[in-house]
Amino acid sequence: PGxxxxxxxxxxAVPGRQAAFRQALEAAVxxxxxxxxxxxxxxxxxxxxxxxxxxxxxxxxxxxxxNLRYTADLLSQEDMIGLLEPINNRxxxxxxxxxxxxxxxxxxEKVGRPNLKLQLDLxxxxxxxxxxxxxxxxxxxxxxxxxxxxxxxxxxxxxxGELNFPYLFELLESLGYTGYVGCEYAPKGNxxxxxxxxxxxxxxxxxxxxxxxxxxK
Length: 217
Known about the structure:
Blueprint: H1 18-35, E1 39-41, H2 53-76, E2 81-84, H3 101-111, E3 116-121, H4 122-128, H5 132-139, E4 143-148, H6 165-175, E5 181-183, H7 191-194, H8 196-204
Parallel strand pairs: 1-2, 2-3, 3-4, 4-5
Helix pairs in contact: 1-2, 5-6
GO biological process, one term: glyoxylate metabolic process
InterPro entries: HyI-like, Sugar_Epim/Isomerase, Xyl_isomerase-like_sf, Xyl_isomerase-like_TIM-brl
Family: Belongs to the hyi family.
């Protein structure tokens, strides 16, 4: 994430921070290798303070593409995947550079490396664009990781909000998604209480706690 005390939230698209980005990426690879994690979120970063987004968009994209090619080369040596996550600039972070799956898809196409993928957080996607069914279908070939949180409170999937997660989970299954679904939400209580929705979901699907079929037993 860069120097968070100085207001940074990622470095990959920030002009003039290329050396710091490469150093941070190497550290991330070191940690990922140690814990056996094959995917790394490559954070784009924020539009610099005092600058107009449109005025620096070209320079930031050029920096992003350069850093992503370096990332892809480094991660290919480790058999790892780099992930790009659009973060909404309407609520969460007004200055974040990468905001929509459309923007991320265009960047991925320009870089053209198979070990760079889209990290699609349905919370951010709903806030920026909605149309989740079509967006999941359209961008499914690019998706390397899914994250979830209810909108607008960013709490558990069964908390009051706009998203129908049982439907979305079934859609992901029908599309053939076999990866993890990251629970990128703030529990309303503690973590264990906040996982109650998952037990209820398993039971609604005829599964035991742990996702195994009762029929198979």
